[in-house]
Amino acid sequence: MKLRNWSLITALCAVSLVLGHAAMAHHSTAMFEWGTEKTLSGTIERYEWTQPHTFIWIVVPGKRGKTQEWGLEGMSPSWLGRRGWSLHSLNAGDKVAIVYYPLKDGRPGGFYVRVTAPDGKTLEALPTRNQ
Amino acid sequence: MRRTVVPVAWATATCAALLSACGAQSPPKTPSPVSPPAVASEASNPYAALAKLPDWGGVWDVTFRPPQPGQAPPAQPKFTPPYQKQWDKFQALNKTQKGLNFVSEVASCIPPGVPQSMIQPYPIEFLFTPGRVTILIETEGLTRRIYTDGSPPPENPDPSFQGTSVGHWENDTLVVETSAILPETSPVNGINGHSDQLHVTERIHLVDPNTLEITTTRIDPAVFVEPYTTKAYYKRHRDWKIMEYVCEQNNHDALDANGNAAFSLKHKPGE
Fold first, then answer.
1. Cβ contact, residue pair B100, A12, below 8 Å
2. Does A55 contact chain B (CB < 8 Å)?
3. Confidence band, pLDDT 50/70/90 cuts, at residue A2
4. Lowest-pLDDT range, A31-40, B21-30, B128-137, B167-176?
5. Is B205 helix (H, G, I), strand (E, B) or coil?
6. End-to-end CA, chain A
7. What gap in Å lies between CA B1 and CA A110, rounded to an integer?
8. Which residue of A69, A113, B13, B160 is surrounded by the most CB atoms within 10 Å?
9. For residue A81, which residues of chain B lie inside 8 Å, CB to CB?
10. Do the Cβ atoms of A30 and B244 come within 8 Å?
11. Residue A12 Cα, gap to closest chain B Cα (Å)
12. How many CB atoms lie within 10 A of CB B245?
């Protein structure tokens, strides 16, 4: 996991140097703890296959039977669609584990990095060493 | 009787003109013993000239390419004092925070301008038609029209995000000159804004069968003390299609009232 992150960061720095631009998203990632992986598990409420970003709404079990809704942004449908994802990769009711970069301000949100579906398959949602 | 003279004369003249235009009055032509050429000449068919242009088919995705052996590392831009201050602030942020630290209105769905629109994380596509190259950019669904018919650029065009472009071919290299770029756009990652003097030259050519190189030079005396040149590389994907991109569909990343990066957890309207 750590190697993967360093690889991404190194690649981004290199891209930034060569292009004079970090080709990643249409915005800064200043609101996220970029590179700090956290994990949550829950039930998909809705998967939005939308521009400029896909969005996962997921209900996460909390203390004393309470639940909390989380919102996780991801890469765009065009980017993910070219790398094995589709509109139907996640469906309401799916129980999944998600690795994400959290928001800095502590609200229940972040940017999703990879998702493990109930069948055990993991889908990568950010560039890895092989991409 | 008199009343009918004019309509009859008119009808006769009109029919004669129509028949003439249709060639109905011409005698039947004898078939020529010589077959017509398979490809029409450039004079009669301007599309014929396109066959001489390089194959830039497919879709192109900007990619990282490490400096080649013997190649100098990318040069750092040299800024005028006010822009140097902005650059230093951006560099300091990069040292202390991971991730992408360039905050711009693009987060709020304002499109990037030339030249930054060419290095977004989504692919681009080239279309060749007579006297024109069109670049379709997936990000924001942007279109660049580059006139290559030799006509001079218009005088005093209104500034726009993609500016006003003319181009010409130097063998297999397309050279594009762009000006009249909106001053609120970013001339380079880390810098917001420039003057109305920004002029961008792009030299676009294949460096191997599936790699396109774009060398971009920016000149703006208000921002750069000398021309600033970068290179970007694009990988060809013949099987990709440019997709629709509507930034306002579900944007959670619009800047806050103070122009800082922000993230909204509001649901889409109606959900």
1. yes
2. yes
3. very low
4. B21-30
5. strand
6. 16
7. 89
8. A113
9. 243
10. no
11. 8
12. 20
Q: Which of residues 175-234 of B touch A (CB under 8 A)?
A: 188-190, 230-232
Q: Say what the pLDDT of residue B71 is.
A: 76
In a mutational test of the A interface, the residue from B117, B256, B265, B266 whose CB has the highest number of chain A CBs within 10 Å is B265
Nearest CA in chain B to A108: B265
Q: Which residues of A touch B250 (CB under 8 A)?
A: 48, 50-53, 55
B98 and chain A in contact, CB less than 8 A: yes
Q: Which residue has the tokens 């139907």?
A: A88
Structure tokens at B69: 């052996």
A50 touches chain B (CB under 8 A): yes
Q: Using a CB-CB distance cutoff of 8 angstroms, which residues of chain A are in contact with residue B232? A: 18-19
> Per-residue pLDDT for B30 more than 90?
no
Predicted confidence band of residue B25 (pLDDT cuts 50, 70, 90): very low
Which B residues in the span 9-38 are in contact with A, Cβ-Cβ below 8 Å?
Answer: none
Give this complex's ipTM: 0.81
CATH superfamily of the domain spanning A26-124 = Nucleic acid-binding proteins (2.40.50.140)
Burial B180-209 (b: 16+ CB within 10 A, else e): bbbeebbbbbbbbbbeeebebbbbbbbeee
| pLDDT tens column, A81-127 | 999 999 999 999 999 999 999 999 999 999 999 999 888 999 999 98
Q: Cβ distance B167 to B182 under 8 Å?
A: no
Whole-model pTM? 0.82
DSSP B160: B
